[in-house]
Amino acid sequence: MAIDEQIHKMKEQISQVIMGKDDTVELLMNAFINQGHVLLESVPGTGKTMLAKAVAKSVEGDFQRIQFTPDVLPSDVSGIQYFNPKDQEFEMRVGPVLTNVLLADEINRATPRTQSALLEVMEEKQVTIDGETVGIPQPFIVIATQNPVESQQGTFDLPEAQMDRFFMKLDLGYPSFADEQRMMREHRETNPLDTLQAMLTKDQLKQFQEDVQSVYVSDVIETYILSIVQQTRQHQDVDVGVSPRGTLAFMRAAQGRAAIQGRDYVTPEDVKTMAPYVLPHRLVLSLDGATLKSQDDVLQEALEAVEVPAEYGVHPS
Amino acid sequence: MTFQKYSQNSRAFPTFVVIGTFILFAAFFIGFDQMYMLVLISVLVTLLYGMSVFYEKHVDDYLNITFPEPIIKHYQGDDGVLYMTIAQNGILPLLNAKVIVEMDNVVQFKDGRHIPRRYMTSYTQSINLMFWEKRTIAIPYETAKRGVARVHNVEVVVPNMFGFGSIFLRSQTRFKQEVIVYPKKSSVPNIDLLSPKRMGYHRATHSLFEDHTLPVGTRQYSPGDAFNRIHWKASAKEGELQTKVFEKASQISWCFLINIHDEYGRGVNENMELLLEKTAYMMHYATKHQIPYRFFINVSSVDQIPFMHLLEGEGNSHYKRSLEILARLKLLTFTMKYERLLYFVQKHESPPAYIIQVGDVSASQLAYLKRLERKGSAICFLNENGLSHSAPKEVAQHG
């Protein structure tokens, strides 16, 4: 089955649980087929955890959840070597990261030290415990949720290095009037989450990943992507711009969108559409810049400053 | 969107209608030959009048005015542009109309009119809007002073159809549009007075205090460790008792106490704007050096803490919030006796490492500060020249 058909089917299934979030589901699937980690940020009660669980259930594989609190230790995430008195030997017990889909719920409630325990596993898909490195089975995807930091006491900003490891940051927002009404009706008697079935197998996911990698990115599109990235680095209100890892993620996200739309080539529209989900969380604004603008504002300015490449035949030259 | 509507009618049209009706009746009675012409003209005039009344009644039915960017932020002295979108979603066009926007004089519209009596700035723009048309008007402005400027009035003046009078449409919608102008930062040359314990953040290597929200790990239990510090999960994993180890934290923080009254406690301190600029500079410095801070201002607030305040915090978002509160501070407002604020801080707040007194202080107020000093806080006074460890001379003499 083609990617676009499969994604459409998954969107239909997940829309029984989370209403009116088709675009978000599509973005999540884009991250999945790129093996990218996703940060869901929204105010409480908008269905972040529910969406993460619904997506995890729709994909074949193991699922683990860590509920982050201030007293979760790094070893609770990665694992420990413990002494087994029966065998008189140290034994390795890998933490909940040994899974396919990891839900890191309320990630910003843990201390930065504990949050950092995910750094290695998110980037290198391996975990090192007391000098011993263990590989994590593929696919491995982290779906983290957090409430906006500004309105919270007792929360800790995610370290920049970790933010950069998130492929996308998505904001759920409130549902529309009609969607919320539908939600009230659907959730009146049953929990639709219980009825979800795994629809995407590991083999399919692997195949889709290969398909996405083969989506054509022309020189013009490459230049367009790089120009936007350069623009974020040169912006007067930015201390740290988009990293090279961010550039790769940006390209892959555009490829993913093209594949989901049923195309085998990337258009400027794909690039422009994916930018607000892939880039802003990677920007570190200057102190004065942060008081005047948000990361989204800065990205918007960067996008406006870069000329969008015209299609061949339309360009005057 | 609702408008308060009133019209200023030209008297020419009703006069014209009355005279026309009179001629029509007169012609009917005297048996005028070209009667059908007069009837035709009278029908035409009645039709025009009807259309004019219809236009006046319904011109605003589908008229909509919005400000696409709800909050704009600036530092004092910056220039900006306010965008306003006006859309006629109905079929009645607005020809030769005028749009008038009024805002607080925290900003000054370029090419606008200053209304000092109402503390407003006004901008007028001519506009033609056809049916189902939307236009965005860009209104350039410069920021005049610290504060928050809101849109208080948007009025559209439309000439009535055929030019007989004008229709005034005053928007009754309360716009959420705000232009927040942060205070300037005025340097405090001797800010180093507060720096000895600053470096290294408030998480310290050597400190008697611990932050119980920041566990760093566990260690082997040793006799004397409190029962509630045993990490049971880790103990089970290790097979022996483990004690939680927390991050060492030193008690470094700043607390700004801002008195907006003058030395007699009646009027407003004439140098308050400069002092707020210096306070903003110090907050910027604190954020840069990761020093947590809080502040209290003796301006009434409907909150659990009855003063304008910001509880302790650090980081960019805390600094942003601080600047926003300073921008929203109105000096001519309901204030509270400064002694009440000092009493509150003394009773309810944990003593910070440094208290920075901003503004005038009387002898009786100084006594409260001395009590805070005895609780372990170092006191500094922020005045026009910068920081000092001692109170102004005249107060010290009285004290």
Structure description:
The complex is a heterodimer of chains A (317) and B (399). Chain A is α/β, with parallel strands linked by helices. Chain A contains 14 helices and eleven strands. In chain A, the strands form four sheets. Chain A has a five-stranded parallel sheet with strand order 2-5-8-1-9. In chain A, strands 3-4 form a two-stranded antiparallel sheet. Chain A has a two-stranded antiparallel ribbon with strand order 6-7. In chain A, 42% of the residues are buried. Mean pLDDT of chain A is 85; it is low at 313-317. By secondary structure, chain B is α+β, with helices and mostly antiparallel strands. In chain B, 27% of the residues lie in helices and 35% in strands. In chain B, strands 1, 3, 5, 7, 8, 10, 11 and 12 form an eight-stranded mixed sheet that branches. A six-stranded mixed sheet of chain B has the order 17-16-15-18-19-20, with helices on both faces. In chain B, strand 15, helix 4 and strand 16 (293-300) form a beta-alpha-beta unit. In chain B, helix 1 runs antiparallel to helix 2 and helix 6 packs parallel to helix 7. Chains A and B meet through strand 3 and helix 13 of A and strand 3, strand 13, helix 3, helix 4 and helix 5 of B. Chain B: It comes from Alkalibacillus flavidus. Chain B: InterPro entries: DUF58.
Strand-residue proportion of chain A = 15-25%
Q: Count the domains of chain A.
A: 2
How many helices of chain B?
8
Radius of gyration of chain A: 20 Å
Please, what is the average pLDDT of chain B? 84
Q: How many beta strands in the DSSP annotation of chain B?
A: 20
Cα radius of gyration of chain B in angstroms: 33 Å
CATH 2nd-level architecture of the largest domain in chain A: 3-Layer(aba) Sandwich
Task: Kindly report the oligomeric state of this protein.
Answer: heterodimer
Q: Order of helices and strands of chain B, N to C?
A: EHHEEEEEEEEEEEEHEEHEEHHEHEEH
Low-pLDDT stretches of chain A are: 313-317
The assigned structural class of chain B equals: alpha+beta
For the largest beta sheet of chain A, what order do the strands appear in spatially? 2-5-8-1-9
**What is the class of the largest domain in chain A in the CATH system?**
Alpha Beta
